[in-house]
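Figure 6 in text form: structure in, sequence out.
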């Protein structure tokens, strides 16, 4: 087995290394209080309720825009929920 082949085998056997930036981000996420993630999700959830009520009560001419606002609020709430789940898993 030549030198090149040994290096390839070693590279395959080595676990993937995270970048220094990924390590720093992971450290920061763990240091952020769980309550901060809960608060972010809670506020996003309240925004979904408010946007949903606005969509339901919007006039016919405002329905499309209200729907877009509601969908954006749902997307933010989902992202906040996923971030909260990741933070709780890191606890």
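Output sequence:
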């Amino acid at each position: 087995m030549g030198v090149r082949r040994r290096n390839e085998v070693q590279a395959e056997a080595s676990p993937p290394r995270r970048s220094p930036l990924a390590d720093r981000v992971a450290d920061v996420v763990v240091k952020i209080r769980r309550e901060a993630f809960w608060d972010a999700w809670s506020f996003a959830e309240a925004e979904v309720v408010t946007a949903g009520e606005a969509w339901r009560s919007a006039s016919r001419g405002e329905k499309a825009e209200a729907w877009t606002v509601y969908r954006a609020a749902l997307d933010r709430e989902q992202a906040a929920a996923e971030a909260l789940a990741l933070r709780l898993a890191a606890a």
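Caption detail: The chain has one domain: 21-90.
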